[in-house]
Amino acid sequence: MRVIHAQAQPGTTGHTLTARLKLLRPTSPDLVDAGFLVAACLLALAGFVTGFDNLRFLAVAVVGVLLGVLAAHVANVFRWSWSAAVLIAGVFYFLLGPALTVPRLAVGGVLPTPDAVGALGASLVTGWMEFLTTLAPVDGNGELLALPWVLALLAGSIGHCVGRRARSAWLPLTVPLVLLCLVIALGTLDAPLLRLQGLGFAVLSLGWLAVRFPRTRRVLRSGRPGRLQLGLGAAMLVAALLGGSALAPVLPGVADERHVLRAELEPPVDVRQYPTPLVGFRTFSGQDLQLYWDTPLLQVDGAAPGAQLRIAVLDRWSGASWSGLGDGVADGSGFQRLGARVPDPPRDRVTQTMVRVLPGYADNPSLNPWLPSLGRVSAIAFDGPGAQDHRDNYRFNLTTDQGFVPDRLRADDLVVVDSAPLPGFDAMTGDPAPGDGVRQDDATTAFLAGTTQRLAAGDAEQWTQLADVAKALRTDGAWSDGTRAGEEQYLPGHGQYRLNSFVTGQQFVGSDEQYAATFALMASRLGYPARVVFGAEVPEGGEVRGKDIRAWVELSVAGHGWVSVPTSVFTPDRSKKPEKNQRQNNDQESIRNVPPPNPVPPPGSYDEMTDTDPASARAELPASEQFWRAFWAVLRVAGPPLGVLALIVGIILGLKALRSRGRRTRGQPSTRIAGGWDEVLDAARDAGRPVPVGSTRLEAGELLGRDDVRDLGRAADAAVFGAGEISSATVAQYWQGVAEARRAIVKDLPWWRRPLARLNLASLVTHGRLARWGTGRLKGRSS
């Protein structure tokens, strides 16, 4: 097995550039190990196929692995440290990365620029979190290509260093195996290449081991293996692969589900920090308020007049307000960064709508984070002054088909949305059962139990009961947002106190806000998952003003998915005014039905609309809760990289511990004492004081300049070359001296270098020690 290349003797042409370049010509073992490594790494990186929307990442990975192998080959030939190979790979990362990953930032799409180098550097730090919190697949031509690029470079450089320097036949397999596990962790729940990767990796591993094992064994016979041996070997290999493929799914301990990091992470955007527009409904509907009633908000092109334009889908009721938390049933995904396309898009009735943001919408803090659409979203694009910022920050919720831009829409932004309207309430026939989805908590809606039972039709089917509730609200109620003269007693809001007053009055009186909030909660009590939609009815000409704003409800219906229930189904016409003798229940009549008010206005409440600093409410939380919220917020961001770092440290320390234990416990007593001496040399090498290849133990002791090391060298020579039996007590005493010498070597270093010495990989991958059992390679370039 080749470990290092011979260095030219002094006085020869070995020091000339030509002679050094000739050394770079790879040998057969070089090519064989590189071939297996490249194939195994590419098979592992192919797991990104569900993470990117095209196969460009695979081309980037091919280039990265090949360049990484080249960097390792150069370091091996010139007997440089493995860290030199990684350094060369880092140069490749920043030098060639702009052309491969961010050509739009490179000069001519090729030459690096400060912006391109900065983007690559940022991807090393923040790209992992962005990739995990972006709905797959991500843009295959974007900056996140830096992730497979850096993984390929590191796998190629480290893997080939280990492969050509390690004596063990199986140790080089750890690099592609770790890469495979990392790609799986960064991937998605879909695994279309599961069998291909598993069987392919097994075949490559067995083949590589079959090639490497003979290099470390003495040949006892000549000639080639017979056909019978080859046939039996091939048959056993095929039987093992097929048997493993068939039995693996039923073995104990095999999980039914695939576990990936993105399923465990919470998205970094907390939508609760943004007020929901429903709490300010009267600012749009109230003509007398002179706020947004006649203010142009959006210009909508491509939608038919009368179409329902969804602005904000609110799927959670906290008891104080409806909020678009978006933490529903889609793998707990919530609002995630959208990749190159929307997963599982609708195929039928898709309409392209162009929505231009007008100043009235852009200046309203309760509206400008929310992206309008007609229903189920198929695709979305941005144009205008903030287009690139929106693409970088856009979030999407798979449960509600709701888009969200934390950086907020700006005037003259153009949002192009391909979406399909939801089925309508009138299209439902028969008595459809409730569909999938999360219902609101019955305990928080218990105050509506009596009214729901009274309005529903006895023992009829659930759908019939729901229709009766809607009819009763529409026919028995009146419409008022409390802004008209003489109607000031009808307050805004849709918390428990306001809705209790709404249903216990002599007549139902409220605006779309109260009717939609109440009907959705009653539908939930009847078994139908429900959510409130704040949106608009598109007028002739497409210019949406405040007076066009509506609130309606969407229900989950079995066999139909989410169904839109228009405002007119459960809300009286706006011209229907309250009865003149109608009065609201006084506080003494209503207070018994409501718990004491929360001193901190919940996210999205009406009071929070006047608070420009969402953190002010959190400041009133107990100090311990503030601490734990901040702790988990930091841990969500810093935890993954710290976990990876801890894993790397644990692997390094574990490998060194296993190596030390093997030397101390395996073999004859003289072998174990010789292993102790190797442990001392490894400690010196990790501390930056390597001993030249070929040095005797006495010479090594003199070079290290320590009396204890000299004594250990003499004792090792006596054990290896001396006569007589060596007792176990002698071995134990020698290893005790080894431990003391190792500690002393590390203690001689400055304090800041001591942990680096313990984590140094030089003794794990260096080939200087291995040259003693590969002396044939020191004399030439034989295989």
Plain-language structure description:
The chain is of the alpha+beta class and 783 residues long. Helices cover 45% and strands 11% of the residues. It has 27 helices and 18 strands. Helix 21 (669-686) runs parallel beside helix 24 (728-747).
Question: SSE layout and pairings?
Answer:
Layout: H1 17-23, H2 28-45, H3 56-77, H4 82-101, H5 114-132, E1 134-135, H6 146-165, H7 174-186, H8 194-212, H9 227-247, H10 282-285, E2 296-301, E3 308-314, E4 316-317, E5 322-323, E6 335-338, E7 351-357, H11 359-362, E8 370-371, E9 375-383, H12 387-393, E10 395-397, E11 402-404, E12 414-421, H13 449-455, H14 462-476, E13 478-479, H15 496-504, E14 509-510, H16 512-525, E15 530-537, E16 543-545, E17 549-557, E18 561-565, H17 567-570, H18 587-590, H19 615-619, H20 623-665, H21 669-686, H22 697-704, H23 707-721, H24 728-747, H25 754-759, H26 762-765, H27 775-778
Parallel strand pairs: 1-6, 13-14
Antiparallel strand pairs: 2-7, 2-16, 3-15, 4-5, 6-10, 7-12, 8-11, 9-12, 10-11, 15-17, 17-18
Helix pairs in contact: 2-3, 2-6, 2-7, 2-8, 3-4, 3-6, 4-5, 4-6, 6-7, 14-16, 20-21, 21-23, 21-24, 22-23, 23-24
